[in-house]
Amino acid sequence: PTAMIRMQQRLGALLSSTRTHLSEGHVEQARATAEEALELAKQCHGPEHADVATALCNLGLVKVERGEHASARPLLAQCLSLRETLLGGHHPDTATALAHLGLSLRDLGQLRAAHQLLERALAVREKALGRDHHEVAGSLNALALILQDLGERKAARRALERALAIYRSPDPEHPHVATALNNLAMLAQDEGDLAAAKDYLEQSLAINVKVRGAGHPEVAVGYNNLAALLTELGQYEAARRLFERALAAKEAAHGPHHPKVAVALNNLAMSLHDLGRAAEARPHFERALVINKKTFGVAHPQVALSLNNLAALLQDLGDLKTAKPLLDRNLAVKEQVFGSEHAATALALNNLAHLTRAAGDPERAKDLYTRSLDLREKALGPEHPKVAVGLNNLGTLLMAKGDSQEAAPVLDRALAIERKVLGPKHPYTKSTARHVTKGEAEEEEEETTDQFEAAGEEPIRRMSRAAKSSSINPSLTTITEIVTPRSSAPALEEGG
After folding, report:
1. How many whole angstroms separate alpha carbon 438 and alpha carbon 252?
2. Residue 463, beta-bridge partner list
3. Using an 8 Å Cβ cutoff, are 128 and 476 in contact?
4. Which of 52, 66, 199, 289 is the most exposed place for a label (fewest CB within 10 A)?
């Protein structure tokens, strides 16, 4: 009995340490403790026990953080299966497992399957906990992420507004209220309603500053997202100051080598570029790449992001020779991590096409744009806004080549998607309409390719203005972050 008690105490410590290591950005230490916890849980309890399910979940989530999405999925699926066996399909812990697996499938680009799992998680929580429980709001928030990925913005808004109402009910200044306001801001910005987005962000930031203090890491997210919006409004100097505050807050909270610091460095670099200070931006991108490689290894989405963004900066500086191998490596990592048919791989192909066009090889660029577009249609469906991006990029290339007859139906289809999904007043719809009516390949700074990517943090979910833009000219874009409460995001679990 004494030995068993010690083993159980050790198991509890390992489960707790895994969570601590990951929150501090120590991914390798988290992997080691998660693997040891799983083996010890099986030794203590056998293969079918609640602690085994927790250990499976935690190891799966560590693999997600490491970018090992394919190997994370079976672990999270085992956790779900075990909880369904032990607890039944209607237990709140089963709902948590459903949410973990759903968000993992989102990372793999399996959006419809992810949507189904998150809807199940929401239904279980509503029945078990009541429609107004804060974990129900967490499920609504996570579901809104998938809906927005799928281009179903109206449904995403309904989910976020309901989550906000639930969070506000007991305490209108709770941090979760700030979370919901932040995510509504990201949706409004995605819809082109910048005034509403700014109002939501200012409300969110005010709550977090009041409740958590100006130096808190979650306040840094607010600085970051407001800065991203100011960038879109053309207020570059004000945006830079906020990005610098976000970086300082993250360095103070996490130290200089944390992956969240890499996100802040990335954003500040983009802001400096917007101000015409590209030479100052480069070392920030390079430092972010070093941090991400040290944290995650060489084959991780965050490393691919840093490679992509550094390459895009070099391309903008005219150094295509140095940029090319970085984009080749970016594509290789995306294919290794996500597979050859994922939307992230389509993005890498799009950016390589842009460089190829700039290097004077329009036929090769056409092939890459076409491959990217085909992948997006398969991964996201034929009427997704990112499909419109691909169509617009291909269409403007064809126009630049003088193939106006081939370009016309491509741009017409892009415009039809944008009018339907984004509305006729959205800036990207207006830009595509100008391309169609003028019959010429305008290059506008506001309308960019997917050239620069967004960085994700846990429990932070990302959105990027670059991911919804739709022309050929490269311009740096800032990262905005969607925050997912721990009740719905892949947050590590304690033993039970």
Report:
1. 51
2. 480
3. no
4. 199
266 within 8 A of 309, measured Cβ to Cβ: yes
Structure confidence by residue, pLDDT tens digits, 330-381: 999 999 988 899 989 999 999 999 999 999 999 999 999 999 999 999 988 9
Helix (H) or strand (E) segment spanning residue 110: none
Among the listed residues 413, 449, 444, the one whose alpha carbon sits nearest the alpha carbon of residue 431:
444
How far out from the chain centre does Cα 392 lie?
23
pLDDT, tens digit, 9 for 90 and up, residues 373-431: 999 999 889 999 899 999 999 999 999 999 999 999 999 999 999 999 888 988 888 88
d(CA 65, CA 103): 12
Phi-psi group of 213: left, alpha or beta (phi > 0 → left; psi -120 to 50 → alpha; rest → beta): left
Model confidence at 306, in pLDDT bands (50, 70, 90)?
Answer: very high
* pLDDT confidence tier of residue 440, bands split at 50, 70 and 90: low
- Residue 62 to residues 101, 170, 307, 313, 460: CA-CA distances in angstroms? 13, 33, 22, 31, 15
* Residue 206 exposure: Cα atoms within 13 Å on the Cβ side: 9
Q: How far apart are CA 186 and CA 192, in angstroms?
A: 10
pTM exceeds cut of 0.90: no
Rounded Cα–Cα distance for residues 76 and 365 (Å): 39
Query: What are the tens digits of pLDDT across the range 68-98?
Result: 888 999 999 999 999 999 999 999 999 999 9
